[in-house]
Design a protein that fits this description.
Length: 465
């Protein structure tokens, strides 16, 4: 029922006055300020664990056609939890379900004591949509739906995200959402590492924001992250005994395949997803903890046994660094020769907070293509060498990648936070030895360079932070 005119009039007048006032307010609010690393103000508890399961994330099993794993978080009071699983149907009656017991491990942080749970589901049917939920303390999560990988020759769409790391809720969220909008058929998401920034014991809010940024993709897709240097912390910092120690969040937050390299068992792994073998390396352990040779030998064995036509390597630190004054010698000496010899198709990297793509040392060869990208807010500057050896390159740009594998063709797109095409190519050929590269330049936006002399904090070696 509508109000009689006299009663509506004062509201209309108020609304008109408010609309007229907007332009004056917008001018005042438009100022750019240094933004804190999270949206959580000092002294506010935003991400305390509770009896309700949160931080629920699915990851591929070694054979993603027959299994996946799930990690989730609850309050410390939840000592044991289970996952329930059925083949997804259209009725709300979920019927008899399989129960999988989780393994649990506690972790203390700035948001209080938490319990992290991990359930590994195996024996599944390929290309099948499963509904599942996880248990809290007298509670359940919503039913999630995750599809197992299909046969090796089925087309696959996957997403790649460079470092998220800073201001995850504020500025990574839009990139993840645009990626999902552009590629709603994606089944798998790969992450370059440096998912968060802080050291151990002070990063739980950042992890909470990472899950907010990833949102429903955490369970609609299976997620495979590489560890970055920011997933480690420094023990005995600024002393001769200083060394990297893996943060407590990493092994608890993701349920990843336990098939890693000797010496980097918790942080390297591989899996097969629909015609592609994905090998995830730990660059920090290779560079700072002396495992480069062991990881290279493991990489070589893992690639030699690849029954699939395609392969992707994922590592945080780049083989060819596009940032000034960075050079990861141990990776280039130990890992690079294996990537080249085994003709890995894509080497997906991060760490340098710019974008750059290049071939290996033999530019005539189509593969590997070495990519460095960044999803998050922190933006560095390109080195002169990167401008010479890489194309395209970008500064001051939040990006994501869509990779489509279909038969003899790998189609690659790099898109900006607003969805604009920045880089594209195809790799074609039935076998690694016959692959050719085809640049796609149509529709790309112009190259982007940093237009600022310094960041708001005054750093001239960075573009934004
Ligand atoms: Fe990094």
């Amino acid at each position: 029922m509508t109000h009689p005119l006299p009663a509506r009039l004062p509201r209309l007048l108020l609304l008109s006055a408010a609309l007229l006032a907007i332009p004056a307010c917008a001018g005042v609010a438009g100022e750019t300020r240094v933004e804190p690393n999270t949206l959580v103000p000092e002294g506010v508890m935003r991400y305390a664990p509770s009896v309700f399961p949160d931080r629920i994330v699915a990851s591929p099993a070694q054979d993603a056609a027959t299994g996946f794993s799930v990690a989730w978080r609850t309050a410390a009071s939840v000592e044991a939890a289970v996952l329930e699983l059925v083949i997804a149907g259209d009725s709300p009656d979920m019927g008899p379900r399989r129960r999988v017991a989780a393994r649990s491990a506690s972790l203390d942080g700035e948001n209080g004591a938490a319990q992290f749970h991990r359930a590994e589901v195996d024996g599944l049917q390929p290309d099948t949509l499963y509904a599942w939920r996880v248990q809290g303390g007298g509670t359940w999560s919503p039913w999630m739906q995750t599809r197992t990988a299909a046969a090796a020759d089925a087309p696959l769409t996957l997403l790649y995200f460079g470092d998220t790391q800073n201001k995850n809720a504020s500025l990574s969220t839009r990139v993840l959402r645009e990626a999902h909008r552009q590629a709603p058929d994606a089944r798998l998401a790969l992450f370059a590492g440096d998912l968060v920034s802080g050291g151990d014991g002070e990063d739980d809010n950042e992890w909470g924001e990472w899950f907010d940024a990833v949102g429903p993709l955490a369970t609609m897709l299976v997620n495979a992250p590489a560890p970055g240097n920011h997933e480690y912390w420094e023990e005995f910092e600024d002393t001769p005994q200083e060394r990297r120690v893996l943060g407590g969040h990493w092994p608890r937050t993701f349920a990843l395949p336990a098939n890693g390299a000797p010496g980097a068992e918790q942080t390297s792994y591989w899996f097969d997803y629909q015609g592609v073998r994905v090998v995830v390396l730990d660059g920090t352990s290779a560079l700072d903890l002396g495992t480069a040779a062991a990881q290279a030998a493991w990489l070589d064995r893992t690639l030699a046994a690849n029954p699939h036509p395609w392969s992707i390597a994922l590592i945080h630190q780049p083989m060819f660094s596009p940032r000034q004054d960075r050079d990861n010698v141990a990776l280039r000496e130990q890992v690079l020769p294996v990537l080249e010899r085994r003709r890995v198709d894509l080497v997906l990297q991060g760490h340098d907070h710019v974008y750059g793509r290049r071939p290996g040392e033999d530019a005539a060869r189509a593969t590997p293509q070495y990519l460095v990208s960044v999803t998050g807010a922190k933006q560095y500057r390109l080195s002169d060498g990167a401008r010479r050896d890489m194309a395209p390159t970008a500064e001051d740009t939040q990006l994501f990648q869509i990779i489509r594998l279909d038969g003899d063709t790998l189609h690659y797109e790099s898109r900006t936070a607003t969805g604009r095409l920045y880089d594209a190519f195809e790799i074609r050929g039935a076998t690694p030895a016959t692959r050719t590269l085809h640049e796609i330049t149509e529709g790309r936006i112009a190259p982007r360079d940093c237009a600022r002399d310094a960041t708001l904090k005054g750093r001239a070696d960075r573009c934004w932070e």
